[in-house]
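[09:14] KT: can someone run the structure on this one? pasting the chain below
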Amino acid sequence: MVGRLLPCLLLLLMSLPAEAGQNCGAKGGKTLTIAQPIVLSGNYDPTAAGNVVVPGVIQVGAPPGLGPCVAWVTLSKGQVGGMVGPGGAHLAYGFSGAFQTAGQEVLNISVDGNGYGPPQSGALVIGAGQHVPAGTYSETRMINVSSVSTLLSQQSLVVSATVVSSCTLPAPATSHLDFSQGISAAHVVAGYAMATSIAGASCTGPSVLRLKGGPMVTTAAAGNLASKIDYKATAVFGGVTAALSTSSQAEAQSSVGAVSGAVSIDVSLVDEGKTLAAGNYNAMLSVVLEPAN
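[09:31] RB: done, structure tokens below
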């Protein structure tokens, strides 16, 4: 019976060194560490089409003589919503590669006999299309270095992004306003008005709402008759109004903050009491939304 048991005992004894070789526990004051804080930082433009990708590296080090062994590297949970910025706004983000979370475990790193694990590449990934206020966003998480279930050391992982000021202004619902019904017997119908709007406008920081335009004019021979039609235009965005009167100005502007929504545009004709020359009258009214300098 004893002879039959010996092979089993030998097999068990042969497996013990492999188990022990996995343990990177502290020995004589030596332990596994990540040498310095890892900082992943980038610039973010909410109007850009692609994701922002910031590469980084995790490398676990150990004093000579502690390896070879395997380190378990995990990442603490982040805040709900992502990095925090101005006014408590959040910028969502994720990771790829070595920083990719899967049940909060990042990766296992084999530390060689010289006391270093191979560099593990990954990246911070900030998804496109997040219209958040301009400013600095950040979050600090902890990288935990463990041996099996024993925490050996911690190091900070700082993720941050600078959101630049930008504005989005889609096309208007109607880009051509026909004022033919505002003319009667070669005279302007005073106050005749038309409107349009621009949905989905937004700015991430202090910005300027601007109107540019001139009178409607005709190229037809006018003789002693009037050849232009003045108008008043207003653009309203985020409770702020820019008002233009073409009889006295070619441009008007107002300051707006970080806001999103629709731009409402109203145009009304001005009656100057003059008889108009026959012809087609045209003008270009521009609506501009841009970051403040």
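[09:33] KT: thanks! The domain at 167-291 is CATH 2.60.120 (Jelly Rolls).
[09:34] RB: yep, looked fine to me
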